[in-house]
Amino acid sequence: MRRKNKTLFISLIFETLLKFILRFFFRNLQYGCLHIQTPSDRLWKFEAKKDRAAIAVWHLHNWKPLWAVITRGSLGFGESYIHQDWSTPDLKILLSFAATNEKQLDGPKRSRKLLRLGDIKSHKGKINSKKQARKNIAYHYDLGNSFYNLWLDETMTYSSALFKGKNVTLKEAQESKYQRILDVLDVQPGSSLLEIGCGWGGFLEHAANQTKASILGVSISQAQTDYALKRLHHGKKRENVNIEICDYRDVEGSFDHIVSIEMFEAVGKEYWNTYAQKLKSLLSTNGTAVLQVITIEEERFDSYSDTPDYIQRYIFPGGMLPSYSVLESTFAESGLEIIDSISFGNDYAKTLSLWRNQFLENWLSALELGFDESFRRMWEFYLVYCETGFQRKSTDVVQITLKHI
Questions:
Q1: Which of 33, 198, 246, 386 is catalytic?
Q2: Residue pair 96/73 in contact by the 8 Å Cβ criterion
Q3: CA-CA distance, 390 to 382, in Å (whole number)?
Q4: Superfamily assignment of 130-404 in CATH?
Q5: pLDDT tens per residue across span 267-320
Q6: pLDDT at 3
Q7: Considering only CA atoms, which of 143, 60, 170, 96 is closest in space to residue 384?
Q8: Which of 22, 225, 247, 358 is close enough to 151 for a disulfide, judged by CB 3.0 to 4.6 Å?
C-alpha cells in the first residue's frame, strides 16, 4: 500500500510540474483553446488571450507526444499520431490551432536542430540523383493505381484544382486548371508540347482532346506511365501524343511549350538550378512554359529548408518547396523570366478537403488493398496538415508563365 501511495504521489508531483511547464509554454497563445486529456484522464485547459472560439482537444495516450513535439516539431507531432500515441475528435481543429499559434509555440526550435541531426542526415540521403529520384518517386506514386483511384477525381489528377464558381465539381475544377494552362500557352496546331512529370496522364489527355499539337509526356514512375498509356490509347492509338519513361535531365529536343504541374517540388533544392537550366535548353527561342508550383511563405523558407518536416519524411522524400522569390531568382539565373503569375492557395485547401473526405469514405476499400491503420493515420495527417497550411497561407500554389529573357 505504501509503495502504491508513493507511486501515486510521484505521479501527481510529475503531472503538476509538467502542467506548470506547459502553462508557461502556452502563455502567449493568440488563438483558440487547447484541452489536453492526460494519460491519467485529467483535463488541462489552456486558453488564448483573445480569440477563444475554437477548442482543440489533444488526448494523450502516453507522455511520448510531448517530448516528440518539443524535440522534433511537426515531424514528432505527426509521427506520434501514426504510432497512436494520441488522438483527437477533430484533427483539423487541432492542426489549425497548432499552425495559428506556431510563432508562440516556436521556442524550442532554436535548440531543436541539434536534436534532429538524424532526421537531417536521413533527408540528405534522399537527394534526387537520377537513381535516388526513381526510388523517391516510387515510394509515393507506386503505392498502386487502385489506391489513388479510391479518392482522386475521375481525371486522376493529383494536384490543385482551380475552382471557378460555387457549384463546381472537383473534376470540372481540374479541367478548368488544365484549360487555363492551354489558354495561357495559346497552343497552335502543329506546335510541340512537353509535359515534365505527366502523372496519370490527365493533362496529356485534355491537351490531346483540345489541341492539334504534337505532345510528349515524360515520367519516372512506371505505374503511372502504364496507366496513362492505357488511358490515352484506349480504343485507338492517338498519333499526336506519347509518353516516355525518362528523367527530365535526359530529355532532348526543342519544344514550343513546356508544362510541369507540381513536379518542381520533387526536384530537390540541390537540383533546382539543374532543372531551370534544362528547362531553358528545351524551350524554343520564342517558346513559353507554364509551371504549377507549391510555394512556402517567404519568412519561413530558411528555417523550413534547414530541417526536414513531416511531409519530407513520410510522404515526399527528397522534396523541397521554394518560396516565390527563390523560384523567381532560380529561373532568372538560368535566363528565364516570369511574365505572368496567379496564386490560388484557397483552391488547394478545398481540393485537399475533398480528397480527405473521399479517402476516409473509401477507407474500407483501402484496407482490402492491404493498407493498415498506421497508414491511414499517416495519410490523414498529411492531407489535413497540407490543407491547414494553405488555409493559414503558410503555403500557396502558383501558376507561373516563363519565357526566355
A1: 386
A2: no
A3: 13
A4: Vaccinia Virus protein VP39 (3.40.50.150)
A5: 999 999 999 999 999 999 999 999 999 999 999 999 888 777 888 888 888 889
A6: 57
A7: 96
A8: 358
Instruction: Kindly state the cell numbers that stand for 380.
Output: 490523414
Cα 233 from Cα 229, distance rounded (Å): 6
User: Quick one: how far is CA 130 from the chain centroid?
Assistant: 22
To the query of whether residue 33 is one of the catalytic residues in this protein, the response is no
Which residues are 340's β-sheet partners? 401
Percentage of the chain lying above the pLDDT 70 cut: 87
Residue 134 to residue 6: CA distance in whole angstroms: 57
Q: Which residue shows C-alpha cell 516528440?
A: 68
What is the dihedral sign for C-alpha 303, 306, 307, 312? positive
Assign 116 a pLDDT band (cuts: 50, 70, 90).
very low
Write out the residue limits of the CATH 3.40.50.150 domain(s) in the chain.
Answer: 130-404
The candidate with the shortest Cα–Cα distance to 251, out of 225, 279, 224, is 279
More confident residue, 359 or 109: 359
Q: Compute the Cα dihedral for 107, 111, 117, 120 and give only its sign.
A: positive
Which residue, 353, 358, 332, 343, is CA-closest to 393?
Answer: 343
**What does the pLDDT look like over 340-385, one tens digit per residue?**
999 999 999 999 999 999 999 999 999 999 999 999 999 999 999 9
Who has greater pLDDT, 8 or 308?
A: 308
The amino acid at 248: Y
- Cα distances (Å, whole numbers) of residue 279 to 249, 256, 276: 9, 12, 5
pLDDT in tens, 169-227: 999 999 999 999 999 999 999 999 999 999 999 999 999 999 999 999 999 999 899 99
DSSP secondary structure, 134-185, as one string: HHHHHHHHTT-HHHHHTTS-TT---S-----SSS--HHHHHHHHHHHHHHHH
Fill in the DSSP letter of residue 323.
Answer: P
Q: Which residues have CB under 8 Å from 364's CB, separation 6+?
A: none
Q: Which residues pair with 45 in a beta bridge?
A: 35
Burial environment of residue 36 by CB neighbours within 10 A (0 to 12, 13 to 18, 19 or more): buried
- State the Cα–Cα distance between residues 37 and 87, nearest whole angstrom: 10
